[in-house]
Amino acid sequence: MLLQLFLCFLQIGAFSIGGGYAAIPLIQNQTVELRHWLTEEQFMDLAAIAEMTPGPIAVNGATFVGLKIARIPGAIAATFGCILPSLVIVSLLALIYRKYRKLPMLQSVLASLRPAVVALIAAAGLNMLLQIAFGGKSPITFNQADWMNILLFSAAFYALRKRKWNPILVMGLCGIMNLVREICL
Amino acid sequence: MERSGGKRLMKLFFGMLYISAFTFGGGFVIVTFMKRKFVDELGWIDEQEMLDMTALAQSSPGAIAVNAAILVGWKVEGFIGMAVSVLGTVIPPMVILSVISLFYRLFADNRYVAALLQGMSCGVAAVIVDVALSLGKNVLKTKKWEHDAVMAAAFIATFFFKVNIILIILCAACAGVLMALKDQRGGG
Q1: Which residues of chain A make contact with B164, given a CB cutoff of 8 A?
Q2: How far B36 CA lies from chain A's nearest CA (Å)?
Q3: Which residues are CB-neighbours of A74 under 8 A, at least 6 positions away?
Q4: In chain A, where are the structural domains located?
Q5: What is d(CA A87, CA A179) in angstroms, rounded to the nearest whole number?
Q6: Structure ipTM
Q7: Chain B: nearest CA to A87, how far in angstroms?
Q8: What residues of B are in contact with residue A157 (Cβ under 8 Å)?
Q9: How buried is B109 (Cβ within 10 angstroms: 0-12 exposed, 13-18 middle, 19+ buried)?
Q10: Do B120 and A125 touch (CB under 8 A)?
Q11: Fewest CB within a 10 Å sphere: which of A6, A16, B29, B47?
């Protein structure tokens, strides 16, 4: 059973390129449709929890399924399977990067990748901002604006940009302020 | 050397543990926090290399956070650094998820939990926008119009047209190859 768990998440780890949202359908296919370890409803719970808790969705999924099938050894076997492809492939890439990063051709490729990565990060941030400010609906109208969220965002942005506060502290404070508002109102 | 290596490993482990325990959301979130910690705060990695690592982590199979932890770990302290960094990244989600899966119904429907998470997502959005602004400014500072064009094109492709991220990275890499060829012809 442990070996099966390991092999199942080995495949998920090896074929999910591009992060969590690529992993979700793979986990569903492997654990619900192929192996019947989870029901459809349990899988929906898994997806919700994986998103609400910190950590990569694939690792969260591996822990959840592993625990269900074979307790803590199961969670460890599944998680190890899930990260093993990364360990091998990314370590190889790290070695290649360190050996060849000085080559002019690779220098040029990396120099061109960096602005693209900046754009991807900026788009991710802007999407999150739209999500919290307008609930992610389109078209955007100001009636739907969540002013409390916008205020929190602005305060957090000011603390980070002008006051250079620690980002995790800022994030925690935002959570607590919203919680206090929920309790008081 | 031994001792300072041990100290660095400890800092690496607890840095990753801390980031991983408190960072909700996708891979870009955790990479942003890693940048703040290892580039801005500790100065172990320069900004360019962190961006290279982000591109590599994004285009490799597996979780972006784990991939980034592997790259940062190798860079900081070799093989042991890699192992320590991955452990630090993986332990918090495993522990937190194990605890929460025991009473997840309660957790998922609780309005106070929802309020806390929603507030935190405002903070996360602010962190990402802040880091993206700093990074974007630095790209513009290099005054290479080709790179500004790549940045603009990648942003439009992902934000407005939802083009697959792997495809965007591949196209940016091809643009880099073309620029290298052009420079060679111009230089020789």
Answers
A1: 18
A2: 8
A3: A1, A2, A5, A65, A66, A67, A68
A4: 2-100, 104-184
A5: 39
A6: 0.84
A7: 7
A8: 126, 129-130
A9: exposed
A10: no
A11: B47
